[in-house]
Protein: Oxo-acid lyase
Amino acid sequence: MKLFNIKRFQDQLLLNVLAKDGKNAADLLEASDGFCVPGIAAADFATIEEAVGTVESIKQSSPVVSIGLGGGGKFDEWKRVVDIAVRSNPEHINQPLERALFAKGFVAANQCFPIVTALISPSGEVGFAKMLTGKKIRVEPLLELVAACGVESIKVMPMKGLDHLEELLFIAKEAAKRGIRAIEPAGGIKVHHLPVLYKEIRKINIELFMPHVFGDVLQGKGESNPSRVKEIFRQLKGVIGS
Structure:
């Protein structure tokens, strides 16, 4: 099943979390009423084979699986994400912007067609993003290029909680204008940040909002705590009622 076909919370939100195995994924899906995307971080695995085995286990319980870089969006993991993907056929993979187009083409050549999200970093200035070189670039022309190349999702990381909220909102608005379907904030996002993030993002007409919440819900390496995930959705329901 494709990522954009999954039923979303309020028709917009899915939560991206790590899962240790199929059992953990099943528990997370139950805790979130099905509104989560369980996955792995490539950096957590010593071998490609081990990572592939975990993805296959998660797929027994979840209609979609995500493969992330790990290590705080570590650039060097991009190739391992691709190698894991072509052997396990996930529905979503994370890539640095500078490798997203190559990855999209490479996995497609191997009959694997996940949504590829392109990671950009906040610059500290609304209207600008930061490249790997540290150079700032204007968001609008960057997103024009990304959209023209068929990339459907933008990941904004590190958010450092809510430190870069205004930058995220600007990027989300400009992405939606250009037909980019998803925005994915990540990095330092805690449970109590989600209601604030969602209250603002839901004002923007973007198809999918998929925050990544890792550290604050983990109960072990690569294993998210279902009770913490349940608490996120309890708080999100409060936003809807407000």
The chain has one domain: 3-241. The longest strand covers residues 115-122. The CA atoms of residues 100 and 118 lie 6 Å apart. The domain at 3-241 is CATH 3.20.20.70 (TIM Barrel).
